[in-house]
Amino acid sequence: MNSEDKRLLVEAAIAASNHGLRKEAHSLLALFPELIEDEEDRSICASLIYFALNEQSEALEALRHCHSDRAQALAFLYSQSEFESQDTHKFTQLLEGDNHGYRSGI
Fold first, then answer.
1. pLDDT per residue over 35-63, tens digit each?
2. Which of 17, 30, 85, 91 is 20 to 30 Å from 7 by CA-CA measure?
3. 69-79: per-residue pLDDT in tens?
4. What is the pTM of this model?
């Protein structure tokens, strides 16, 4: 399967989860090891699908072994029920990287 086909299947999984198509999203999610080679990228994509399906514990579990700033920012987002102003600052800082714009991970 070429990379364009793989990318389209990942996008379909995300779209399915955003539209509440649980069965379809989970079916495509099962193919992620074959579709996404990088383990951290695969975990982050899976977490987005779980989160869209309102499966927060699974979304957090998908990120358990990820240590990039982006993964940490997502885990922070998933674990918050409501944002307060200081929370959004921390979230933005994690997404944007340090003062020099460095982002670890993806």
1. 999 999 999 999 999 999 989 999 999 99
2. 91
3. 999 999 988 88
4. 0.74
> Which tokens belong to 100?
């020099």
In Å, what is the CA distance from 98 to each residue of 16, 94, 103? 34, 8, 7
Q: Which amino acid makes up residue 76?
A: F
Tokens of 24: 């379809």
> Residue 1 in 3-state DSSP?
coil
Distances (CA, A) of 73 to 7, 53, 63, 68: 23, 19, 10, 9
CA 50 – CA 57 distance, rounded (Å):
8
The counts of H helices and E strands in the chain are 7, 0
The single-letter code of the amino acid at 11 is E
